[in-house]
Amino acid sequence: MTTPLNNADRSSGTPIPKLVTDLRLTPVRLPDLDLTVAVPRSAEELIDETEYADNERLPYWAELWPSGRVLAELLAKRDLGNMRVIELGCGVGLPSIVATARGASVLATDWYAEALVAARGNARFTLCADLSVAHLDWLDPSPAVLELAPFDLVIGADLLYEQRNGDALARLLPRLVTPASEVIVTDPRRPHASALIDPLVGAGWVHERTSVHLDGPVDESGPEIHVHTLTPSSTGPGGAPGGASGIVGEADPP
Questions:
Q1: What is the residue-wise DSSP string for 170-199?
Q2: pLDDT by residue (tens digit) across 156-189?
Q3: CA-based diameter of the chain, in Å?
Q4: Could you give all domains of the chain from N- to C-terminal order, each with its CATH number?
Q5: Distance between CA atoms of 189 and 17, rounded to whole angstroms?
Q6: What pLDDT does residue 63 have?
Q7: Among 40, 53, 82, 160, which is most buried by a count of CB atoms within 10 Å?
Q8: Beta bridge partners of 153
Q9: What are the angstrom distances between the C-alpha of 90 and each of 94, 121, 179, 206?
């Protein structure tokens, strides 16, 4: 897969990234795969008051979140050879890097240009691999990204920390998939997960939720991570929200 939008392509509308140089190296041990990921030393120092005032944007991309580690471990156990994968909200790029290591052709996307720089840099540093990246606004997705759809696998970690994120993703996901695709979202039990799940289930998507107990560093959400697996409706292109009733498969109680 070629890079449809990269950090040097200003004509595409990709924001110009701010330079982030104060980094720490974080080792990540996964099944049959040891990686080292560079992460900004302090995400708080990257807060831009103007961006926050404009759209309440915070540099969540600059953390290696527990949900990202869980997603990376799930991917490390899979053979993804010849699969086309897109990561939404890639941050520093760990799940995308693991998917690349397991044979997938990956497009890593994020709203923050700095995240795209970090993801590409980490792929080069820890895998000596070129990672395709693209700026993606979930509310106004770039035609350059949509033209690359459909993807076999859509992945994302800790995306549902706001209601508006679930609303936007419920509209975006059907545009990225076919009935044969799979979506995996790991989430630390955020209360806004239903904003994504409910509209898709209502459109006929199948949803399964399992839980993973995270060993190692956790955040304020605790050690339990939910793994949401979604497969589209077979009744239309991607199963857009608003269709027939769906099926929900729950592997553990709500």
A1: HHHGGGT--TT-EEEEEES--GGGHHHHHH
A2: 999 998 899 999 999 999 999 999 999 999 999 9
A3: 50
A4: 66-250 (3.40.50.150)
A5: 31
A6: 84
A7: 160
A8: 85, 182
A9: 8, 13, 24, 24
